[in-house]
Automatic annotation (TrEMBL):
<dbReference type="GO" id="GO:0045490">
    <property type="term" value="P:pectin catabolic process"/>
</dbReference>
<dbReference type="GO" id="GO:0030599">
    <property type="term" value="F:pectinesterase activity"/>
</dbReference>
<dbReference type="Pfam" id="PF01095">
    <property type="entry name" value="Pectinesterase"/>
</dbReference>
<protein>
    <recommendedName>
        <fullName>pectinesterase</fullName>
        <ecNumber>3.1.1.11</ecNumber>
    </recommendedName>
</protein>
<dbReference type="InterPro" id="IPR000070">
    <property type="entry name" value="Pectinesterase_cat"/>
</dbReference>
<dbReference type="GO" id="GO:0042545">
    <property type="term" value="P:cell wall modification"/>
</dbReference>
<keyword id="KW-0063">Aspartyl esterase</keyword>
<keyword id="KW-0732">Signal</keyword>
<keyword id="KW-0325">Glycoprotein</keyword>
<feature type="domain" description="Pectinesterase catalytic">
    <location>
        <begin position="40"/>
        <end position="318"/>
    </location>
</feature>
<feature type="signal peptide">
    <location>
        <begin position="1"/>
        <end position="20"/>
    </location>
</feature>
<comment type="function">
    <text>Acts in the modification of cell walls via demethylesterification of cell wall pectin.</text>
</comment>
<keyword id="KW-0378">Hydrolase</keyword>
<comment type="similarity">
    <text>Belongs to the pectinesterase family.</text>
</comment>
<comment type="pathway">
    <text>Glycan metabolism; pectin degradation; 2-dehydro-3-deoxy-D-gluconate from pectin: step 1/5.</text>
</comment>
Amino acid sequence: MKSLKTILALSFLYLTATTSLVSPYGLEPKDFYKDVAKTLVVSHNGKGDFKTIQAAMDSIPSGNKNWIKIYLKHGTYNEKIVIPKEKQKIIMQGNNASKVIIQYNDAGLANTSGPIRVDAEYFVAINITFKNTYTRMTPIIPYKAIKVAPSVILAADKAWFYGCSFISVQDTVADLLGRHYFINCYVVGAIDFIWGGGQSIYQNCVIYVKAVRSKEMMKEGGMLEGFITAQGRESEVDKSGFVFKNCLIQGDGKAYLGRAYRNYSRVVFYETNMSNVVVPRGWDAWDYNDQVHKFTYAEINCTGEGANKKGRVGWEKNLSAKDVKFLLEPKNFIDEDGWMATLPSSLVSIFS
């Protein structure tokens, strides 16, 4: 019940203004300066060390082995940022996700479009909104206005997000590969908006489904049924998958919980509150109708109108208690080598 109250608080703070779909919610982790070797301050008004985030990033030496924090003062940063693989152990921090926004108008390429691409291991982001501004956030988005437009591209192992918002319509979070932990985050989209071959836990997050007008029913005003996830697990030994733990699904559109991006796709929702935005069938096989037995799609102890399993596909899995426990515990599913314990101690205390 405590976790559900936290989620409802997140939901309440959703901003419905069409000009700025961001969540102001971001917890205030204390003592983030601990274990940080250096702090670089970025500010538009020249009162920091740098005026742009990329300039701060470029100043960090390749092969860095100590935690460096890039602190972002309030503002909207219109930038296209790349964190190269040789620049590890970066903390990017704001103090309010509604007032620290990294955005860029860029669409069409799933692996390179958008405001930020992370190629380095050990990346941490705290209280920041990542937004792709290509598609204007009208109350109902025309299908023809949509292109692939990620707000973040994760192409590296060991990333951790806390109190962040991710705003776009299609392919919002490109969770391509590696292990990632999202806590108290807010994700907005309509089509495949959490996708890729990542191995990730989304905990206490709000998933907001945007309404899109179907291209087949433009004149009638019909709604497109989108997809929250498109997970790309490729074999039985592939460790990837998306786990949603104590989350909230809401919105003004309609969406399946997921569709199979690859033939061993794995997505699990645990104790998640689902509104009626969830399509009754729940899941879609996409191009793998003859391989549905290979998918791992499951819902455990979920609540809300959208969690009613009447009408669900017949091939949704009933996982054993052992399998559920393995997927839910970070130390089992995404932290088997103990990398999370090497984060700054103030962050470790949050999940331990």
